[in-house]
Amino acid sequence: MAILYALVARGTVILSEFTATSTNASTIAKQILEKVPGNNDSNVSYSQDRYVFHVKRTDGLTVLCMAEETAGRRIPFAFLEDIHQRFVRTYGRAVHTAQAYAMNDEFSRVLSQQIEYYSNDPNADRINRIKGEMSQVRDVMIENIDSVLHRGERLELLVDKTANMQGNTFRFRKQARRFRTNVWWRNCKLTVLLILVLLVIIYIAVAFLCHGPTLPSCI
Fold first, then answer.
1. Three-state DSSP class for 66?
2. Residue 6's closest CA among 146, 96, 156, 110?
3. What is the DSSP string of 135-150?
4. Do residues 7 and 115 make contact, with C-beta atoms less than 8 angstroms apart?
5. Which of 79, 132, 145, 163 is the Cys-Cys partner for 21 at CB 3.0 to 4.6 Å?
6. Which topology term describes how it sits in the membrane (predicted)?
7. CA distances from 91 to 26, 58, 86, 104, 114 (A)
8. How far apart are the first and last CA of the chain?
């Protein structure tokens, strides 16, 4: 699964979060929220081991996700943009005064659904490419997490490998189902085409027998 964890926060106050696997990403994400400098809008990524924490801050609202390094930057930042828009559209001005985890019961389900979509559905990246959005992602510098956390504060990132394997198995099964469906449709189309060709041949043969030239009779 490409995206493993996500949160929405106002400053250091986490309003909603969801993790798709057993990991201590939440603890490290809280440290990042405390250490990320400034209040200006920004997009930034911090790497640790084979994982990257992507952070998008807009109008005082921070959306963060942890993704596998192989996911690149386009998909995670498309996910963050989507989550930011959904959160603001759903809660409006309430995001500026809400208490910690006030939206978690409801919005954690949205985080779960969108993590699943952006991690496993190929249309997520395809639609983003067609729209031509997120071009600013190319300018995002990926820094090592040590750049914001002192070495003494850094925690070892723990990720349940079994959950990742389950995510990979899910993608494989989904691709296998799609392949079987495509083969089935191709076979159906071929069968229909053969039937049509056979019907045309029968029609021509019957027409020839019924309307063909008659032999002259002997006198």
1. strand
2. 110
3. GGGGG--EEEGGGTS-
4. no
5. 163
6. Single-pass type IV membrane protein
7. 23, 15, 9, 12, 17
8. 89
Q: Tens digit of pLDDT for each residue in 116-152? A: 999 888 777 665 555 544 444 444 555 555 555 554 5
| pTM, to two decimals | 0.62
Please, is 87 exposed, middle or buried when counting C-beta atoms within 10 Å of its C-beta (0-12, 13-18, 19+)?
Answer: buried
Task: Give the pair of three-digit tokens for residue 22.
Answer: 């057993």
Q: Report d(CA 149, CA 70) in Å as an integer.
A: 23
Bridge partners (DSSP) of residue 76 are none
Q: Are 19 and 119 in contact (CB under 8 A)?
A: no
Where are the extended beta strands (E) located within the chain?
A: 3-10, 13-19, 42-48, 51-58, 61-68, 142-144
Q: What is the pLDDT of residues 43-91, one digit of tens each?
A: 888 888 788 999 999 888 999 999 998 888 888 999 999 999 999 999 9
Separation between Cα atoms, residue 42 and residue 192, nearest integer Å? 56
